[in-house]
Every structure is written in C-alpha cells, then in structure tokens.
Design a protein that fits this description.
This protein has 463 residues and is α/β, with parallel strands linked by helices. It is built from 16 helices and 14 strands. It folds into two domains: 205 residues, 3-Layer(aba) Sandwich (Rossmann fold), CATH 3.40.50; 154 residues, Rossmann fold (3-Layer(aba) Sandwich). 48% of the residues are buried. Bound molecules: adenosine monophosphate (AMP).
Length: 463
C-alpha cells in the first residue's frame, strides 16, 4: 500500500520506504514511478548491507522482489561514481541461467534506472553475437548475461571483466542444474578481486553452499521464504491418470473457463512439443517455450502469453525458470519433474502477489515415487482431485467428481497404484517415460571441466 511519507519530495522529517534504505534522487523517483513504494522483505533486508559494501547470500525465489534488491544498490553506486568506463568492460555483471530471466532483469533495471545515465546490455546465447560485441565495445555500466555466451565473449577478447566491481549470480541452484557452475567460477575469477558479490538461490543444495564459500566474503545471509516450501496461497492437487490418458484429461480440464491463464509443464522439450500439438489438435491455442526454440520464438510465446492472446503456455522447467507473468490462474504438471525441488518452482508461477492459484499434477503410477519425493519436500500430502486409473476413458470415470479440479478436502484415495475398486495395479505396465528423451538440463554439462578462457569451446548449449 502506498505510504504518503515514502513519496519523493514529501518532507516528513523522517525517512521511510526506499529512502530509509538509502535510495535517493532520480533512482528513488523511478522506483516509486515503477510502483515500488514499500520495500518487499528481501529488499528491506538486502539493500542496506549492500549499500555498505557487504556481500549477500540470499535464499529467495523469483517473485520475491530480488531483482530490485540487488539492482538498486548497484545502480545507486554507479550513479554516485558517475560515468567511468573503459572500452570492452562492464562495471557490474549479472549472471542469469536463462535468457528469459536475463531479459526480465534488464527490463526491471531499465525501469528503475529511468532518468539516470546508466547503460545496460544483454549478452545471451541464441541471438546475434555481432550486435552484442558492438554493444559492449564502448564499455557498459551493467551487463546482464547467460554464462555460455559471456564465456565466449571473454574468451575471444571482446569483453574484459577486470573492471567488474559488482557481480550478481541469480538463481544459483538453476545454474548448477544447467551445468554452468564451472563457467560461473571462471567468470567470477576474471572479475575484480575487490568486487562486491551477491548470490541468490531459491534452494540451497550443498554445491551452492560450497560456491558461496568460494565467492562471497563474509556475506550477510538473507532468507525470505522457508526452504523448499511452496507458497501458501496455492491450492494443490493430484490427478491419477495413465500416460496415455493424460492428453484427454488435460483437454477436459482446459475446457473449463475457470482456467484463465495456464502454464503446463513438461519434463522434456520433446514432450512439450507433443503436448502443444495435441492441444492444438483438440482445438486449443497454445504457445510453447523450451530450450530448442529460437530466442525470438521464446520471447514471442512469452509475450503472447503475458498479453493474454494465448491463455495456455506449455513449458519445460528450464525455459520457464524465472518467468514472472502476473495472473497465472493454474499450473498443470503434465508429468512430474525429475528433481522434486523443480515442483516448487513450477507451482510458484501461480499464486503470486496474494492472488489465488491452483496447481494440478497429472501422475501416472510409474511416477508415484517422484510424487512421494515431492510430498516429502513440500511436507504435504497432495489431495487427490480425480483418479482415472480404473478407467480407460477418463470422461466416463465416476471417480472424477471435481469438475473444476479443486482438490477435495480429504485424501482417502489410493497412492499405491490401487484402482478405485481396490484392485491392485498391474505390474509391468509400460513406464510412462519409455522412449522419451532426457529431461532438459537434467544432465550436468560435461566436457568443460578443464576448459579455461582461451580453451576449446564445447558444443553449444541452450541457455
Ligand atoms: P522479482 O522477484 O524481482 O522478479 O519481482 C517480482 C515482482 O514483484 C515483479 O513483478 C516486480 O515488479 C514486483 N516488485 C518488486 N519489488 C516490489 C515492490 N517493492 N513493490 C511492489 N512490487 C514490487
């Protein structure tokens, strides 16, 4: 809520809001113009120590407001120092695991820096390298980059990081999942030794704790959401259906107009394409986003979804990472993710800013162990919304009572593959993922452990 005392120019005698955190002048004005009047908890906690020059280790998800939490102190310092850049250098570097997240970060920074003379540039895979080299040639204030393309530019001598005094690593856990961790370490090593560093991660696997130890100096640790716990506003449920039934179950669900803005997660790129094609065959308009799509196609899919010209977005975990589209009413997990923690990220796309959100997971019996892992992580048993396991035709299954797919209050349903009539599941059922491709990003990137800047470049990856 807007607090009059936080508005710039209001002489209240006492500072509050972002002004109390040390944000001043044009930056404070632009921050308010962006609609940010009251700092979010992560901003209130992370901005003051960064203004004092401290390193930050933040456990926070996208949606927490972490972009402004790291961007405002950097902008503030760059503005105070004035224009001072050498050719081919960047004063601040923000590393993001995906192109979409990088674009989103730059958009936010541009809004926050409106009216201040701060230059930004993007360095991403999948788009013209030439224009990026041209953009960084005179030197920039803030560079937002994915690690693969950035490594390329540094190796070729098109970018020098020795003047980089601020380094931000966003979504560290996803960098790890995508096999970027060695690139990240090398990039950090090439920056100024007296730099200030902020590391953000939604979860804290051991490797991230190790990375933090290596990169951060006496960091202030900030945690804004409990570790691996899904947001409370999201109503969650599971629908048991065999893999071959899922298409029909999904189309039946989507016929419900209550599903206004839906993101459907698929474990694999191939699976995402197949789900999209099936939906189109069933008469639904859907956009798809995954690592094999060109940057333009990804951005168009995201824009169409954001603007509401399509209400269904099919995505893989990695491509959807960091996507912040307000007003997503439903998340559907067409299949369970390989890593249970991804479930938390997936469902976190809905239930934002206090709005209601519903997350439905379609589960084949072969995915039961993954479902149990998810439940262990979120410390909740998912209520059963519908159970189609006893019926070859989900539409004729009497177990399907919840027309709007709102989870029932209790869950006395079966979790061990038993059919509604108490009949045991048939062992030897074809595994759901037989013949499917490897999940996107699940395999750590190999072959670059010994690579240094100047070394041979391995095959390109999707960023
Ligand atoms: P982020 O986690 O940085 O992606 O931010 C999530 C969303 O919160 C974005 O849509 C921001 O525009 C919004 N946001 C961030 N900080 C504030 C704030 N202090 N007041 C209102 N909205 C904010």
């Amino acid at each position: 809520m807007t607090n009059e005392n936080t508005l710039p120019g209001k002489d209240s005698g006492e500072l509050s809001g972002f002004a109390a955190l040390g944000i001043t002048g044009a930056l404070l004005k632009a921050t308010h113009a962006a609609g940010f009047t009251e700092p979010k908890p992560i901003q209130a906690q992370a901005i003051p120590p960064q203004m004092e020059g401290r390193d930050i280790f933040g456990i926070a998800q996208t949606g927490s407001g972490k972009t402004a939490a790291f961007a405002l102190p950097i902008l503030s310092k760059i503005i105070a120092l004035g224009t001072k850049r050498r050719a081919k250098t960047t004063r601040a570097l923000i590393l993001a695991p995906t192109r979409e997240l990088a674009v989103q970060i730059e958009d936010t920074i541009k809004i926050l820096a409106k009216g201040a003379h701060v230059s930004t540039a993007l360095v991403l895979g999948g788009v013209s390298r030439f224009s990026q080299v041209k953009k960084v040639a005179p030197g920039v204030d803030i560079l937002i980059a994915t690690p693969g393309r950035l490594t390329d530019l540094v190796r070729e001598g098109d970018l020098i990081l020795s003047d980089t005094k601020w380094l931000v690593l966003d979504e560290g856990d996803r960098m790890l999942d995508m096999g970027f961790i060695n690139d990240v370490k090398r990039i950090a090593k090439a920056t100024a030794p007296d730099r200030q560093t902020a590391l953000f991660s939604a979860t804290m696997p051991d490797e991230i704790a190790e990375l933090a130890k290596g990169l951060l100096k006496n960091p202030v640790r900030i945690e804004v959401s409990p570790h691996s716990t899904a947001a409370v506003e999201i109503v969650q449920g599971v629908v048991f259906a065999r893999t071959k039934q899922k298409r029909q179950v999904l189309s039946t669900m989507l016929a419900d107009e209550a599903m206004k803005s839906v993101i459907i997660f698929s474990r694999t790129k191939h699976g995402a394409d197949r789900v999209t094609k099936d939906l189109e065959r069933d008469g639904f308009k859907a956009a798809v986003i995954h690592g094999n799509k060109s940057q333009n196609a990804r951005q168009k899919a995201l824009n169409d979804f954001r603007e509401g010209s399509v209400r269904i977005l099919v995505a893989t975990d990695i491509a959807a990472r960091g996507i912040d589209v307000p007003g997503i009413s439903h998340v559907v997990n067409f299949d369970l993710p390989d890593e249970a923690e991804s479930y938390v990220h997936r469902i976190g796309r809905t239930g934002r800013n206090g709005m209601d959100g519903i997350a439905i997971t379609l589960c084949d019996p072969s995915e039961n162990s993954k479902l149990r892992q998810v439940e262990r992580i979120i410390r909740t048993k998912l209520p059963i919304v519908a159970d189609h396991l006893g019926s070859p035709d989900p539409l004729r299954n009497p177990a399907e009572k919840n027309e709007r797919f709102e989870p029932a209050n209790d869950r006395n349903g079966r979790r061990d593959g038993r059919r509604p009539g108490g009949e045991k599941k048939r062992f030897g059922d074809k595994p759901a993922f037989a013949g499917e491709r490897k999940p996107e990003g699940a395999k750590p990137f190999k072959g670059n452990n010994k690579r240094r800047f100047g070394g041979k470049r391995p095959a390109a990856r999707a960023a």
